[in-house]
Amino acid sequence: MSELIGAPRGVYDILPEEAEQWQWLESRLKHVIHLAAYREIRVPIFENTDLFKRGVGETTDIVNKEMYTFLDKSDRSITLRPEGTAGVVRAYLSNGMHRLTPPVKLWYFGPMFRYERTQAGRQRQFHQIGIEALGSSGPAIDAEVILIANDCLEAVGIKDCRLELNSIGCTDCRPRYRDLLRQTLEPKLPLLCEDCKERFERNPLRMLDCKVETCQAQFVNLPSTIAELCQPCKEHWDGLLSALEQTGLKPVLNDRLVRGLDYYCRTVFEFITTDKRLGAQSTVCAGGRYDYLIETLGGTRTPAIGWAMGLERVRIISDAPSGSGPSVFAVSCDEKAALSIATRLRREGISCDLDFAPSGKPRGLGKQMEKANKTGARFAVIQGEDELASNTISIKDMKSGEQTRIPAQELVPFFSGKVGTPAN
After folding, report:
1. End-to-end distance of the chain based on CA atoms, in angstroms?
2. Superfamily designation of domain 328-415
3. Exposed (0-12), middle (13-18) or buried (19+): which is 226, by Cβ within 10 Å?
4. Residue of 136, 190, 165, 350 whose CA lies nearest to 267
5. Measuring CA to CA, which of 66, 166, 320, 351 is 20 to 30 A from 398?
6. 3-state class percentages of the chain: helix first, strand second, coil last, to nearest 5
7. Torsion of CA 174, 180, 181, 184, to 10 degrees
């Protein structure tokens, strides 16, 4: 016998019961997003590597350490997408969507790929749902994007999240803060990790995103990003806080929050949970404004904001129900009759299964009923020899044990309004 081939490290199979939880999550998240008039966009799983180097930023851990990059047969450098925003912006420019009336409001869903240490809710192939609003610079669109994220989390039963919020300024005020940060951190450089020392020269704000505990211990009494905002950024910040206040959503202000991607400016935010099932991986949704990314990727300067939500983490702490069986199980001494019953019910939107014996020959009614019970079906529809001869059907309530016989033609009306698909 040949040796079994396992899955690569960092990827996993989504088995049927878990897949039903994913379907439940996706349907509820997409419903909330659709209510805000965002439209779906589907972009490739792989892109030219330069898209992520220019878009995400060469000082980020994603580009430096985590991307799955390879040469194709024409020696072109290709990368499996590590995040969604850069690909959406590329599609926005490539397909002339920048000529549409702004804001262009888009959402996406799909697998992403990063080479990093696996842990609870974090894999090397993982899934994100995200939204992007391109073309509006005001704080109201920031508030809308944040509120949609909050509503998405609540729609799947996650209510213990806190919203952490910050502004990291723009190209006018950020250089001043960057210089001030360097002055404060330079005496501490000998105590910091090698990554932080490199970031100190290239992008000191990225130091604040370091996950090394000994580094974080040194990041105390640092200058505040909010205190160094220019007047336009301060007005934008105040407008965002006012808009959120009117909706009742109360953020926790965190002037150390910078996010891990170079394209962010002004508004940055994270939704963080205290649910212990995620361990240290407490961020379930994060995003911010990226007013310079479209220009960096070859377009004209265009304000934009978005977020991404990790579905693996969300599934772990959501109210996603466990897998469900069919509503009805067809039992018959004639396999063709059972299949006919199942087909009639399925065509009416009623989920139904039946027994297919490994031998190819129908098993006895008792064995079929055992399988019906194992599937968790709400009802069993039974056609033994007596029922076939009289053109009737017996219906057994698998919970109460009550059994009723009806004319075969009344099968569909009997179930009308009683049962539906597994998702219901």
Report:
1. 43
2. Anticodon-binding domain (3.40.50.800)
3. middle
4. 165
5. 320
6. 40, 20, 40
7. -170
User: ∠113-211-78 over CA atoms, to 5°?
Assistant: 25
Give the residues across from 395 on adjacent strands: 381, 404
Q: Which residues contact 200 (CB under 8 A, 6 or more apart)?
A: 182, 185, 186, 189, 192, 207
Mean pLDDT, residues 309-337: 89
The whole model's pTM is what?
0.87
Residue ranges of domains in the chain: 16-173+229-317, 328-415
pLDDT tens digit sequence for 282-297: 889 999 999 999 999 9
Reply yes or no: is the peptide bond before residue 103 cis, omega within 30 of 0: yes
Q: Where are the alpha helices (DSSP H) in 302-421?
A: 311-317, 335-347, 365-375, 385-390, 411-415
To 5 degrees, how large is the angle CA 148–CA 153–CA 157?
140
Question: Which CATH architecture does the domain made up of 16-173+229-317 adopt?
Answer: 2-Layer Sandwich (3.30)
How many other CB atoms sit within 10 Å of the CB of residue 300? 8
Rounded distance between C-alpha atoms, residue 205 and residue 176, angstroms = 12
Per residue in 85-108, pLDDT tens?
999 999 999 999 999 999 999 999
